[in-house]
Design a protein that fits this description.
homodimer; alpha+beta; four-stranded mixed β-sheet; 10 helices
Chain lengths: 324, 324
């Protein structure tokens, strides 16, 4: 088996067969049939060894995460996922590594009925580029620019777990084995909040997924919407492990580091009752409100403004990533 | 100016503004409005330093080529290009390099009215992944699988120039400076045959772009169409530089090495007269015919079967590329 056949074998046997894929892997292009009357939502994310993940990363987790971070972007638009392309550079062919990588990637693909329709491979330093596509009605797409003064700000799930796990792995903090097990999955196998994004169509004014930290990502909503916000520290949802970490080391893990892939979104007053009734398995918490005055004001329990030590950009010197 | 702002500045100022781009760079996803009643043609190609290009490559040529090889895949489906995403890993920010890269890429984008709508950047070894999208009517898409016995086989332009230029650059052959100038552009700045692909809609039975060599790529058509072919050596179009090379070193450059990005396509007898009347600036040559008997038979001027020394896969040990 040569290198081409091997790779073709691993990827051509992908497990999803959608009716809207007229031609998938194997021609010059994939031929796809988007539904009439909806917009196509398209996103692309890179994961590079030594920048986004450690060289000894579990390949199944890496396969999961490479797809998950793209599906998370679709979730943040309120889009329904459909197809993805994979660009993979590999230093060498390692059959068991590739099998595990595909297992992780395709298990998530199957869960969300998203089909691999093409891509490219090359020999080179390990890097994964995925481009994912989905559908969203034009009128209910969740843009970053839609927030209005008076909107309530919500986040799904809990924040900071991925950052705490990363600090442990970098040797900067020490967690007990059981605590690490709890948070490691948040870093290694994030859950794209696709069902939550779909449920928020027509209810949320603006949304983003938290990949660079709450402050940076909420900051994008504020900048695009030309608004400001007030966020209450004691309303930010934390896991027990992260709560203990925050009490000891401060709020930066929960506020200024990313990789949680929770959704942050804003809801106008008239939709708050409906949103509060949504039952999300991951939970849903109101953490503040959009204000007309620009700037992000973080308020602690004593009513004082809290000034984070860093804001979420360039949060690890080795970690440099930015969407175009 | 930090790294994020710099990259955002270079890419956000892309020169094309299509009416079907509802949201381009700057949100979680691009939002795109595909035309009703057509299929979406999607393709993705990687260029990795040391594999697909030399470290000292001219950045403007690299920007051109990274987009051109993707547009070439759209051309081979008969698709009209619309949008593209860029994933770029860079070892460091070099403003003049980035400006030149963007100039080359955006000049080609403008020529074909194709808009950059998103992507991702990261620090890492230099690599470019582009994913391009276009439209094609379902009934006239040029598939690899459509060839039928009796079809004539055509190629656009001339073959082998890129291979001859590469041999010179690798120090394996020596060209005069004037000869090298003629062929270097074929390797460095290939022309995607988009107008030709559009003109062949409804006329050609099957098509592919030649990126791995005529033998390998025509071989894909034969395999997908479950047919064979006869190709006449003396009908293969060559530039004067490549002709001199072939006379001296044999046919491998023209037959078994790629990067010419010409189209190879098959035409049923009833459409031959119409196709022969098409005026392609790059030229158009009939090189053989599809036969029911499987296998590719190459016939020399004495009527003997010609056996190439290698067939186009793995044609340079450092050059390992394959589409999924």
């Amino acid at each position: 088996m040569n290198e081409f056949e091997l790779i073709r074998r691993y990827f051509a046997c992908q497990p999803v067969a959608r009716a809207d894929v007229v031609a998938g892997i194997g021609d010059d292009c994939a031929l796809l049939s988007p539904p009439a009357g909806q917009l196509l939502a398209v996103t692309s994310d890179l994961l590079v060894e030594g920048v986004h993940f450690f060289p000894d990363v579990d390949p199944a987790s890496l396969g999961h995460k490479a797809l998950a971070v793209n599906l998370s972007d679709l979730a943040a638009m309120g889009a329904e996922p459909a197809w993805f392309m994979l660009n993979l550079t590999l230093p060498a062919i390692d059959e068991s590594w590739l099998a595990a990588f595909c297992r992780g990637m395709f298990m998530l693909a199957r869960e969300h009925n998203v089909q691999l329709v093409g891509g490219d491979t090359a020999r080179g330093p390990l890097a994964i580029g995925i481009e994912a596509q989905g559908f969203v009605p034009a009128t209910t797409a969740l843009r970053r620019s839609g927030a209005k003064a008076g909107d309530r700000i919500y986040v799904t799930g809990t924040l900071g777990d991925a950052a705490v796990a990363l600090q442990h792995r970098l040797g900067k903090q020490r967690l007990s084995e059981s605590d690490f097990t709890v948070v490691a999955d948040r870093l290694d196998r994030p859950t794209p909040r696709l069902r939550e994004g779909l449920a928020l169509r027509g209810l949320a004014h603006a949304a983003i997924d938290i990949s660079d930290g709450l402050l940076a990502d909420l900051g994008h909503i504020l900048a695009m919407s030309q608004t400001g916000a007030r966020v209450y520290l004691d309303k930010i949802p934390l896991s027990a492990v992260c709560r203990a970490h925050v009490d000891k080391f401060g709020w930066e893990a929960a506020l200024a580091t990313g990789d949680d892939y929770e959704l942050c979104f804003t809801v106008p007053p008239q939709n708050v009752a409906t949103v509060e009734k949504l039952t999300f398995a991951c939970g849903l918490h109101c953490i503040g409100e959009i204000e007309a005055e620009t700037g992000l004001r973080i308020v602690d329990t004593s009513g004082q403004f809290y000034q984070p030590a860093f804001s979420g950009h360039d949060h690890f010197s080795s970690l440099v990533k930015q969407s175009i």
